[in-house]
Design a protein that fits this description.
The complex is a heterodimer of chains A (415) and B (151). By secondary structure, chain A is α/β, with parallel strands linked by helices. Chain A has helices at 9-13, 15-19, 47-60, 70-90, 104-119, 138-147, 164-170, 193-202, 222-225, 250-255, 290-326, 353-361, 375-381, 397-414; strands at 28-29, 32-33, 35-36, 98-101, 125-129, 150-154, 175-181, 207-210, 229-233, 244-248, 266-270, 273-276, 331-333, 343-348, 365-366, 368-370, 386-390. The chains are: A alpha/beta (415), B alpha+beta (151). The A-B interface holds A 30-31, 351-355, 358-359, 362, 369-371, 375, 378, 384-385, 413-414 and B 1-2, 4, 7-8, 13, 16-17, 39-43, 63-67, 69, 124, 127, 130.
Chain lengths: 415, 151
């Protein structure tokens, strides 16, 4: 298949050099060169990230905020430098508004637990949407069980877009928080997040944005968005697993009780009572994932370097994938949101997605098959599961061609 | 190297396309249980009419991948007319085959008959739960009547 003219040629010409930076990509799987199209689950890691983690353990390993010795000071400085790097990356007002967590899931749980403890009571309401990942559903269900609050859900259209009129109708004087994804992990829907935030603020309600699927694909400016919380994971932006970020406005974070107790989150402990540390340490109990933070810092540098060229390239790749897949006999693309980024779900007539996944895996192609941790969305769409491709900075039109070339075999076996 | 034809044998593809004993049971079953795999959303209900501890009729319905559906379909053919104890012994045998705990030469392949075509599944660890789903359900149905999962 010929590449459409819309593929930006200068950026595409750099792809071989980018791919060389990812050691995992240079392997064969089941005897075929690997095509990795499961980036919404996790991205591969470039040498710079792998080397930064190794270098930290080789040279600077020690605990942070505890030692007067040189290594501890180096580790502390490295950690805090990453905090400020992340602050600049999302344009937060100050480093203290950047909390390290284990990932998006923990970031959301932190808000549900700490913000929920003070601000959410019986009869109050939390608004989420049909497009959410389980990690932006279950923490709120747990909060509702604890507090007697009620969970409200923004419905979607058949195309996979949020119903903003219905959303307006859900906001009321009992709405204590709106928690929505920036980009849907199953359909790739880009939500009109500015409008969602503006409407909530018009109602006096703060907004948490689950940015796990947005941060790898677009610049995010938390002050321009004026969101109250923004959560994302390191491992979806070419960083290591086990590190993520919660941005929160200082005013809200200051008013929230600690999430977990332990070392580092206190300024003094007496059996009669404990004084908590200041932001951000109030929310970072115990030894943090220091090597993870170091890796995240390097990953943020890497992403920022390549994002400007990746954005138009990925838009063209998505367009290419949509038309190439739709052109294959028996393939249906799931949803038609107004704006889609990162992920594309599809079905093949009479073939279960797991069987698609297994057949293409034997061709060396890694895709996701399943409910994508979005069971309520699947139920709304009347599906048990889908097959999903999702893009990273190293994907090419040749990757899509490999996938579309493998599908006739799937149809032949099961059709 | 893994071989697709080992996993998706003709018999399996046939049962996937035309599942046997598929659909509700009339008169109603004496025992039933749901098999659910939360990982992929596959869900089957297995209906059993036990008469004097013999499986007089067995049917299933629901949705799942080719492996889970074919395994369920072949199971209904294999267990029809079996005593409860025989069925339990068959469950144990199949379970060992699918999980790779026992190789084919250590199993009673005469008794397993057509079901040996499912033995390729043990080379695909993530698909083992698909193949065992309906078997767990029938095991539960004739024992506890509760819903089961393969998790």
């Amino acid at each position: 298949m010929n590449a459409p003219a819309s593929i930006p040629t200068t950026a595409a010409a750099k792809l071989p050099a980018i791919r060389e930076q990812f050691p995992t990509l240079a392997q064969t799987v089941h005897g075929k060169p690997l095509v990795y199209l499961d980036n919404a689950a996790t991205t591969q890691k470039p040498w710079c990230v792998i080397n930064a983690i190794a270098a930290y353990y080789e040279h600077d390993n020690s605990n942070v905020h505890r030692g007067v010795h040189a290594l501890s000071q180096r580790a502390t400085a490295a950690c805090e430098a990453v905090r400020d790097k992340v602050r600049a990356f999302v344009n937060a007002a100050e480093p203290a508004e950047i909390l390290f967590t284990s990932g998006t899931t923990e970031a959301i749980n932190l808000v549900a637990s700490s913000y929920g403890a003070n601000a959410v009571g019986s009869g109050d309401e939390i608004v989420i949407s049909t497009l959410e990942h389980h990690s932006n559903i279950v923490p709120w269900q747990l909060l509702c069980e604890r507090s007697g609050a009620i969970l409200r859900v923004i419905p979607i259209s058949d195309d996979g877009d949020l119903d903003l009129d219905a959303y307006r109708g859900l906001l009321n004087k009992r709405t204590r928080l709106v928690a929505v994804g920036h980009v849907c992990n199953a359909l790739g829907t880009v939500n009109p997040i500015h409008e969602i935030i503006d409407l909530a603020h018009g109602n006096g309600t703060p907004v948490l944005v689950d940015g796990a699927q947005a941060i790898p694909h677009m610049p995010v400016d938390v002050q321009a968005l004026d969101c109250d919380f923004y959560a994302f994971s390191g491992h979806k932006v070419y960083g290591p697993t086990g590190i993520g970020v919660l941005y929160g406005k200082r005013r809200l974070l200051d008013a929230m009780p600690p999430y977990q107790g332990g070392g580092d989150m206190i300024s003094s402990v007496r059996f009669e009572g404990t004084t908590y540390n200041e932001l951000p340490y109030k929310f970072e109990a115990g030894t943090p994932n220091i090597a993870g933070a170091v890796g995240l810092g390097t990953a943020v540098d890497f992403l920022q370097t390549h994002l400007p060229e990746f954005i138009p390239l990925e838009a063209a790749l998505m367009e290419y994938a949509e038309s190439a897949l739709a052109a294959v006999d028996g393939v249906t693309i799931v949803g038609a949101p107004q704006q889609r980024v990162g992920a594309l779900s599809f079905l093949i007539d009479n073939v279960h997605p797991h069987d698609i996944g297994t057949v293409v895996d034997l061709q060396g192609i890694a895709i996701r098959a399943g409910h994508h941790c979005a069971q309520p969305l699947m139920e709304r769409l009347g599906l048990a599961s889908t097959a999903r491709v999702s893009f990273g900075i190293y994907n090419t039109t040749a990757d899509i061609d490999r996938l579309t070339a493998a599908i006739p075999e799937v149809v032949r076996i099961f059709g | 190297m893994l071989d697709l034809a080992e996993l998706y044998q003709e018999v399996i593809l046939d049962h996937n396309k035309s599942p046997r004993n598929f659909g509700p049971m009339t008169p109603p079953p004496t025992h039933q249980a749901e098999g659910y795999n939360p990982l992929c959303g596959d869900r089957f209900t297995v209906y059993v009419r036990l008469n004097d501890d013999v499986i007089e009729e067995i049917r299933f319905e629901g949705h799942g991948c080719a492996i889970s559906k074919a395994s369920a379909s072949m199971m209904t053919e294999a267990l029809q007319g079996m005593g409860r104890e025989q069925a339990e012994a068959m469950f144990a045998e199949i379970h060992d085959m699918l999980t790779g705990k026992r190789k084919l030469d250590a199993l009673d392949t005469d008794k397993l008959d057509k079901l040996v075509v499912l033995s390729g599944v043990c080379e695909f660890p993530v698909r083992v739960k698909c193949a065992t789903l309906a078997w767990h359900a029938v095991h539960s149905a004739i024992n506890t009547q509760g819903p089961v999962t393969t998790e």
